[in-house]
Design a protein that fits this description.
Layout (H helix, E strand, L loop, with lengths): L5 E6 L5 H12 L2 E4 H15 L2 E2 L2 E2 L1 H7 L5 E6 L4 E6 L2 E2 L7 H10 L3 H15 L4 E5 L2 H5 L5 E6 L2 H14 L6 H17 L12 E4 L5 H18 L1
Parallel strand pairs: 1-8, 1-9, 2-8, 9-10
Antiparallel strand pairs: 3-4, 5-6, 6-7
Helix pairs in contact: 2-4, 2-5, 4-8, 7-8
The structure holds 2'-deoxycytidine-5'-monophosphate.
The site of 2'-deoxycytidine-5'-monophosphate has 14 residues, from helix 2, helix 4 and helix 8.
Length: 231
């Protein structure tokens, strides 16, 4: 049986990381983990509890609540996908709302939040055979990952993709709000002190502005095969 590897996919928000990562995981029979969903679930919990006021997270109250936050990915046979559960409630849809998207970047800068979620991510990755996407997977979570990919695409293309995704799910949003949210998140993600978004030295860059998912898969197949053989 082929050896299993860890595939770390990092990059800017809305550049198609999760679609690409999910497709790779399906093809290889690997587990796909959306690390951004974990930060989103902590954000949703904090919003519901009133720990985010006027857009500013109360770091102490959020940190104090971390032991009461349980995040799981459970398979939904109807959608055929793993979905995010927060304290046993399926929150897959709610964590994608524009409100959660607006507050998740500041919440993800809280050091204790990152410590908890990185530990959870490493635990899930112990058995290998995993594709995980996020911002710090190749740099912090799995610096030893056999394959690291850093994804990017232009702001306008990313805004269009996120807008289509949200409206496709029946969520009503304004295109310019979506675009501004992406620009704001890029700035926060790249400039935070702890685990800023950056390409790992050994990550391969993929700019998919003009690529379909199938073209991206054609590009990555040979690379994966090589990494599995080398591991
Ligand atoms: O991938 P996403 O857009 O769902 O991620 C939501 C937010 O979570 C993003 O603004 C940055 C943060 N995040 C992070 O800090 N580290 C990760 N590994 C994944 C996401």
């Amino acid at each position: 049986m082929a050896k299993k590897i860890v595939i770390a996919i990092d990059g800017y928000s809305s550049c198609g990381k999760s679609t690409f990562a999910k497709t790779i995981a399906k093809e290889l029979g690997y587990i796909y983990i959306d690390s951004g969903a974990m930060y989103r679930a902590v954000t949703l919990y904090s919003m519901r509890k009133g720990y985010i006021l006027n857009g500013i997270p109360d770091d102490n109250r959020i940190t104090g609540a971390l032991d009461r936050i349980n995040i799981e990915f459970l398979y939904n046979p109807v959608s055929g996908e793993f979905e995010t559960h927060l304290n046993s409630e399926n929150v897959e849809r709610e964590i994608r709302s524009i409100d959660v998207s607006s507050y998740v970047s500041p919440v993800s800068t809280i050091p204790q939040v990152r410590t908890k979620l990185v530990a959870l991510q490493r635990q899930i990755g112990l058995s290998k055979g995993i594709v995980m996407d996020g911002r710090d997977i190749g740099t912090v979570v799995f610096p030893e990952a056999e394959l690291k990919i850093f994804m990017t695409a232009s702001v306008d293309i990313r805004a269009k993709r996120r807008y289509d995704e949200l409206t496709g799910k029946g969520i009503v949003v304004d295109f310019e709000d979506v675009r501004q949210n992406i620009i704001a998140r890029d700035i926060t993600d790249e400039n935070r002190d702890i685990s800023p978004l950056r390409r790992a030295d050994d990550a391969i860059i993929l700019d998919n502005s003009r690529m379909t998912v199938e073209q991206q898969m054609e590009w990555v197949r040979g690379i994966i095969e090589k990494k599995i053989n080398e591991s």
